[in-house]
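Weekly structure sync, notes
Attendees: PL, DS, HV (note-taker this week)

Item 1: CBS domain-containing protein
DS walked through the input record. Source organism listed as Devosia nanyangense. Sequence as pasted into the shared doc:
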Amino acid sequence: MQVETILQSKGRAVTTVSTRATIAEAVDLLNTQRIGAVVVMDGTKVVGILSERDIVRHLGKDWASLATRPVSEVMTRNVVITSSKASIADLMERMTEHRIRHIPVVEAGELVGIVSIGDVVKRKIEETEQEAIALKEYIAS
Ligand code: AMP
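Item 1 (cont.): predicted structure, written out as tokens:
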């Protein structure tokens, strides 16, 4: 099973912000879109990722000024990415290894989707349900 399977069912839309956006603007997006991370872009290039964890971490240090700071000062710069052809098993391994819950999907330098740990769990549940149905049919036949 490939990352592409998840993208086909969830869609390819990715919520992004520019490096110059403020943390207040990014938080507004996280809330209105009900997501845990936004991908940070410099034009069409992925240059960072900002998750709710980053915001909580900085809140502990400098909560008073956080809202007006640019995303570039709070985001994680070394983004772990994947391709549509990668396996879901590989994706899960990388999420566990790096302790991250979001992985942008990039093809030929272009952002084409994002997969969260929630998407992976949903897919795994669907897979298990399908296997159970197939087993029941096999037993009944
Ligand atoms: P998360 O568990 O995804 O909410 O993020 C936990 C931490 O990992 C935060 O500091 C994020 O900025 C960072 N992070 C999340 N996703 C990625 C990713 N794909 N590549 C690198 N860092 C990430």
